[in-house]
Amino acid sequence: MDPAVLALLSMLLMFVLIGLHVPIGVAMGITGIATYATLVGWGPAMTLAALEASHTFGSLDFAIIPLFLVMGSFAAAAGLSTDLYRIANALVGHLRGGLSMATIGSCALFGAVCGSSIATVATMTRIALPEMRQRGYQTSLAAGSIAAGGTLGILIPPSIIMVLYAVLAEQFVLTLFFAAVIPGLIAVVLQCLAIGIYVRVVPNAAPAAAPLSWAERGRTLKGAWGVVVLGLVVSVGIYGGIFTVNEAAGVGAALAGAFFFGRRKANRETLSKVVKETASNTGMIYLVIIGASMLTYFLSASHLPSSIIDWISALDLPPLVIVFALYVMYIILGAVFDSFAAMVITLPFVLPVVVGLGYDPVWWGVIMVMVIEIGLITPPIGINCFILHGMAKDIPLRTIFKGIAPFLIADILRLTLVTVFPQLALWLPGALGLA
User: 150: which of 120, 126, 249, 343 fits an S-S bond (Cβ 3.0–4.6 Å)?
Assistant: First the structure.
């Protein structure tokens, strides 16, 4: 059998396994090992599987992932996410739609700390949704701002999915982090702008509140100093060149743990939850990485990526048309799969195509995360919307999907801007000599 045909059949097998609810990492690993064994033999395939597993578990690059995860778990358990929301509310809560804007900002910052879109939506649903509903916010706007805001954390650094992309695509992690800064800021600004426009068109969607005095804002900031310190230490440490990314993750985890114990939030049950949550998420991510590595080996051995590049070249389509076709694919995948899975499953054959078209792999890393973000809130699935609905069952899915409409428009505008003007992602790392 032609190796490329075998690879396509194997990809079909992988999606069948995923459809049967086999864990994605296991499905990729089974497919990769079986197909590689068909091409080169079972002995080399099993040896390769063992080597990839040991390399993944021993990699210092991947050590960042559990450290950032434990930092996020400790931060949430210590109540820092609540503090973050209180700060944002104190600053902009008095504006019409201000609580929704505060939710967007809080989602972006907390999502960057915890690294998970799903965890961010779950956390902010508990914190922000009751506040907005209590103050008379339109349910669709409240739900939409949480679901859409939850997508921002996987883009804004330090982002675990960016770390994963950097390692798998053999790019410098810090370059990806700096490349995501400007698109991340644009995302927050456009989503807040979408709220501002929406509440002008529908004034009763978000009543204006009385502004807090500067003294009250000062007290709020003082009471929430912990989250400010954690954010500054990690961000200034990374971007100021004080820490490497690994060291910043370790310092952040230790500092979040200190707040967790220092605020007397620690008990056996909570600590057990933090450990189990971190171990479970770390195991899932490592399993996906190992499975993806095996998938990459068999795809390389089958020459499927080069066959795809040759086929696309023969179509003689403009590169931008191909890129937009990939956007559609990622939006669909993002609506169905977790962001990690959507990226890892496709990266082995999409990245060679994109680089072969002449695009920068750093720019593509930012773009791919942005498109997956859009998929996370795209009807009729949109996993973030289902998470929110699962936690607030009295809010119908159609209400949530109605609420994310302004944010989808803002996200599509941002994607268009970064596509047409790649320097929005590439200028900052280039200016710092990282590109």
Answer: 120
